[in-house]
Amino acid sequence: MYDDLMKDVQEKMQPAIDVAEVNKKALETLFSLQSEYVTDFVDSSVAQLKALSEVKEPKEAVELQVEFFKALESKTTATAEKELAALNSAKEEISEIVEKSLSEIREMPYMSDFNKFLTEAAEATSAVVANATQTEAAPAEKAAAPAKKAPAKKAPAKKAPAKKAATAE
């Protein structure tokens, strides 16, 4: 029983293990390419400094620098293209693993029951939402109708100003 459980877990985890292996292989390739590039860059920079230290004319120094940067650009481009190819390869392999896993999941017998459940739940939810929308629309229509005016209240009568008593002077 334990062996069956372990076998089942290993079988179910195989796609994740495969993805990890693809990632590992891609990272090893990228590290290798970067290591080669940095080593080559340092070596060529040291060689360039030696060459520049022996130059007597400024024109020769400029020409050496132009050649150095052209070579550096081509090496950088080549390395970047190799890295991009490694990443694309890893992406394709992982996509294949994911697609295979998803197709296997769809073929599992309990997934058809689960999909049926999800479909029924979605239909029930949309029915509830439609009912709620209709219920909310009815009061809104009533509110949109013009309201009856309330009878106007009469303002309280103003008191007549009290007559001032004439004071005799």
Q: Could you explain how this protein is built, in words?
A:
- There is one protein chain.
- The protein has three helices and no strands.
- The longest helix is centred in the first third of the chain and has 53 residues, at 2-54.
- The chain has helices at 2-54, 58-107, 109-144.
- With 169 residues, it is mainly alpha-helical.
- The model has no long low-confidence stretch (mean pLDDT 80).
Compute the separation of the termini in Å.
Answer: 124 Å
Give the overall shape, derived from the CA principal axes. Answer: elongated
Helix content: over 70%
Count every helix, treating DSSP H or I runs of 4 or more residues as helices. Answer: 3
Low-confidence sequence ranges: none
Order of helices and strands: HHH
Give me the secondary-structure category. Answer: mainly alpha
Beta-strand proportion: under 5%
Query: What is the mean pLDDT?
Result: 80
Radius of gyration: 42 Å
Tell how many strands the DSSP assignment holds: 0
Main beta sheet, described?
none
List the helices and strands and how they pair.
Blueprint: H1 2-54, H2 58-107, H3 109-144
Helix pairs in contact: 1-2
Keyword list:
single chain; 169 residues; mainly alpha; 3 helices; 0% strand
Quick description:
The protein is mainly alpha-helical and 169 residues long.
